[in-house]
Amino acid sequence: MGKLQIDHSSLKLNHIYKSSCAKGLKKLPDESVDLIFTDPPYYQYRAQNVKGLKNHKDVVTEFEFDGFNSEEEYLQFLEDVLTECYRVCKEGGSGYLWCGDDFVSYINRIVEKVGFKFRKVIHWHKTNPFPAIHTRKMYANSMEMMVHFSKGSPKTWNHKPVNEMHNFIQTPICMGKERKKHKTQKPLKVCIPYIEISSNEGDIVLDPFMGSGTTAIACLKTNRKYIGYEINPEYHAIIKERIYELDNPAPPKKRAKPKV
Fold it and tell me: How far apart are the first and last CA of the chain?
């Protein structure tokens, strides 16, 4: 019997569902997305006693979306989400998942357990991290990891210049006008290159944890389509604002004429 052909025309594209991805993903058809690009909660248990730094944009601290009771619960949650991601990913599709250094080795094993092929860990060096605090006797948190995986061998691999194909990228944390009120917002500079490498224009990109909407903005900037999930209404408002700003850019400010 041949493989069942699923009609994907009913998919609601360029849409972010106000839903938990754990429930929402189950409604997506098999093999309906070309690329997975996501930044899930990190379970930042290490900094539960840090006080007075919660609102800083780059300090390791607890977040409201890290509501897991144990490492085991957190890792099982990721496994459940990645199991659904494997089902909805097309054969030959790729995935990228941001993670902290605490759990990268666990996640490498989880992606293979659910059926993906682990490919590489990509390292992001943040050139302007929050400085190390002397009394904590720890180094500055200047690195984040991203696990690259695929469903079989990647069918799409848009090779960039050789010096851009390293598993290392260096850029500041999200700043300036791009920065929104989201504590773990990733800059477009560390997202767009990988979306361009592992997908083509018109492809469907899935982000189960939309957060501030960086994946959606990256897709719109590179002519991809997206499907996302975000349960937090405040973050939904941020995404809506970013998409509006992208569609309605502010006119450049005129420079004042110098006084003579």
Answer: 83
Contacts of 252 (CB under 8 A, 6+ apart): none
Any bridge partners for residue 17, and if so which? 229
99 and 107 Cβ atoms separated by less than 8 Å = yes
Task: Tell whether the model's pLDDT for residue 237 goes beyond 70.
Answer: yes
Least Cα distance to 59 among 48, 68, 70, 75 occurs for 48
**Residue 135's pLDDT is what?**
77
Q: For 159-179, how does the pLDDT look when each residue is reduced to its tens digit (9 = 90+)?
A: 999 999 999 999 999 888 888
Domain range 15-247, CATH architecture: 3-Layer(aba) Sandwich (3.40)
Residue 200 in tokens: 């083509």
- CA gyration radius for the chain? 19
Mean pLDDT of the chain, nearest integer: 86
> Per the structure block, which two tokens stand in for 189?
């500079």
Nearest to residue 43, comparing CAs of 65, 22, 19?
Answer: 65
Q: Which amino acid is at 144?
A: E
What are the angstrom distances between the C-alpha of 231 and each of 1, 119, 211, 237, 245? 40, 30, 9, 11, 22
Q: What number of residues does the chain have?
A: 260
**What percent of the chain shows pLDDT beyond 90?**
64
Which band of pLDDT confidence, cut at 50, 70 and 90, is reported for residue 207?
Answer: very high
Task: Tell me the C-alpha distance between 101 and 217, whole Å.
Answer: 26
Between 147 and 43, whose confidence is greater? 147
User: How far is Cα 81 from Cα 97, in angstroms, rounded to an integer?
Assistant: 11
